[in-house]
């Protein structure tokens, strides 16, 4: 069963003085591209957090965030006085230079400026970390479950598209004999126009065989059929097959293109166009497969 690279996991852990929310988002990427936003209180645990993520998430653009909401009155915050003074002086200078009125409520203005309110870093005890670590593991599991669910939907889509291409491939056979007969008839009609002309019949027969062999698509049909079966078996072999499925889709495309260039028949070319449409939808979605 394949998995999607897209996923989301969110878990909130309740601690005595704070509420910790762990959030993980994943999108498609050629390799694992991990970015983290971790509060200073958990900075010494960053390598441990990254290790947990790397063990579980093979590929994708992953964003990991921890948010803290402090509960009660004992909030470890303080006003950054140097920052307040700096903002105050800058606003006065701008007011003088640009002749702009000063704010009527200095406190409301200054306290909204960035980095004016500082949260003091505290050491996290092991009991609290155990709870947070559990929340991280649970969020990772939610994300993986999401990937499995999305992967099942992708697999159904791929199975449908592969079945459509296989059905279209079987329709090619309906026009093969007609196509060869049309070619032979066209050649014979042209020969009748030069009746009485002397030509090398052996050479003509060799050219006819060569021309018809060039139009033969049995090899392309067999290879395309094998690629379609290989695509299905690869999906069923397990997750982590995204790149391989992409390579197989490219090979399917090559055989469809060759089939189109050799078809020399309007109905067969229509079938090839329909095959390409089905394959294009596979190629778009296979980029999301883990």
Automatic annotation (TrEMBL):
Highest taxon listed in the record's lineage: Bacteria
Domain Endoribonuclease YicC-like N-terminal: 2-155
Database matches in Pfam families: YicC-like_C, YicC-like_N
Keywords, ordered alphabetically: Endonuclease, Hydrolase, Nuclease
Cofactor(s) this protein cannot do without: a divalent metal cation
First and last residue of the signal peptide: none
Residues annotated as domain Endoribonuclease YicC-like C-terminal: 175-289
Record InterPro entries: YicC-like_C, YicC-like_N, YicC/YloC-like
Family (UniProt): Belongs to the YicC/YloC family.
Protein name: YicC family protein
Organism: Parabacteroides acidifaciens
């Amino acid at each position: 069963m394949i998995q999607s690279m897209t996923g989301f996991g969110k878990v909130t852990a309740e601690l005595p003085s704070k509420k910790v929310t762990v959030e993980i988002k994943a999108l498609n990427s050629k390799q694992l591209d991990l970015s983290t936003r971790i509060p200073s209180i958990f900075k010494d645990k960053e390598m441990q957090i990254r290790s947990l993520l790397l063990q579980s998430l093979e590929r994708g653009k992953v964003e990991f965030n921890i948010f803290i909401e402090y509960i009660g009155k004992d909030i470890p915050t303080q006003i950054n006085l140097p920052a307040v003074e700096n903002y105050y002086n800058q606003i006065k200078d701008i007011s003088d230079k640009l002749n702009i009125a000063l704010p009527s409520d200095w406190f409301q203005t200054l306290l909204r400026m960035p980095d004016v309110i500082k949260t003091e870093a505290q050491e996290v005890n092991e009991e609290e970390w155990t709870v947070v670590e559990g929340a991280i593991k649970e969020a990772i599991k939610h994300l993986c479950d999401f990937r499995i669910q999305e992967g099942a939907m992708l697999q159904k889509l791929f199975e449908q598209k592969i079945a459509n291409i296989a059905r279209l491939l079987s329709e090619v056979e309906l026009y093969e004999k007609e196509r060869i007969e049309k070619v032979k008839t066209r050649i014979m009609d042209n020969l009748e126009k030069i009746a009485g002309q002397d030509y090398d019949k052996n050479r003509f027969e060799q050219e006819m065989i060569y021309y018809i062999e060039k139009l033969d698509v049995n090899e392309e049909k067999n290879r395309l059929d094998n690629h379609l079966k290989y695509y299905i078996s690869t999906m069923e072999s397990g997750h982590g097959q995204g790149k391989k499925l992409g390579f197989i889709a490219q090979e399917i495309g090559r055989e469809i293109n060759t089939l189109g260039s050799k078809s020399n028949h309007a109905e067969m070319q229509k079938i090839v166009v329909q095959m390409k449409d089905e394959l294009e939808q596979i190629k778009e979605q296979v980029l999301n497969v883990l």
